[in-house]
Write a structure and sequence with these properties.
Blueprint: E1 4-14, E2 19-24, H1 29-33, E3 37-42, E4 45-57, E5 60-65, H2 71-74, E6 81-85, H3 86-92, H4 100-103, E7 107-110, E8 115-124, E9 129-135, E10 140-144, E11 150-154, E12 159-162
Parallel strand pairs: 7-12
Antiparallel strand pairs: 1-2, 1-6, 2-5, 3-4, 4-5, 7-8, 8-9, 9-10, 11-12
């Protein structure tokens, strides 16, 4: 069974020709513009929508779907999340990029092999991704997901190694 991951949301219509104003993740313009098909969830099924054209406008994408030619045909999708098959995203990941759900739950160790806690979430502050790490003392610390601090991620071993500089974890 395919696993689907959300890549955007139909925020509104744009004009009267059935174009959709779509919001998408920050810094993902190139990936989003390369999509040929997305899916919308209807009850428990995912319905494919073929993309005819995408253009960027301010911080949004204007998307023309094949077979949707008026506001009336688009209005049922207003507010709908857009999904792609997980394999589409995996193909576009660089060697040092990961899906959030792959990181959540991984144990965190320092470079000497001491267990420090585990990852409970991932967020972004605009400059970099942040790992939310729950420490042994049950505190949550935000750790920048940058090479200088996160030195190794092993999905196979289900662990992350960090350079635990003083004051990083509480």
């Amino acid at each position: 069974m395919s696993k689907f991951i959300s890549v955007g949301k139909i925020l509104n219509f744009h004009g009267i020709q059935g174009e959709a104003k779509v919001g998408y993740s920050k810094n993902q313009q190139e990936f989003f513009c390369g999509l040929k098909e997305v899916f919308v969830k209807e009850q428990q099924d995912y319905k494919p929508l073929k993309i005819k054209n995408i253009r960027l406008h301010k911080n949004f994408a204007i998307v023309k779907f094949d077979g949707i030619n008026s506001i009336d045909e688009l209005i049922e999708y207003k507010g709908a999340l857009l999904f792609v098959d997980e394999s589409v995203i995996r193909e576009s990941l660089d060697e040092d990029e990961f899906l959030i759900d792959e990181l959540v739950g991984l144990e965190v160790f320092d470079k000497d092999g001491n267990k420090l806690g585990f990852i409970v979430g991932v967020s972004n502050n605009g400059a970099s991704d942040l790992l939310s790490i729950k420490t042994k003392s049950n505190n949550i610390s935000l750790v920048p997901f940058v090479k200088a601090i996160v030195t190794d991620v092993s999905l196979k071993e289900k662990k992350v190694t960090i350079n635990n500089i003083e004051g990083l974890l509480q």
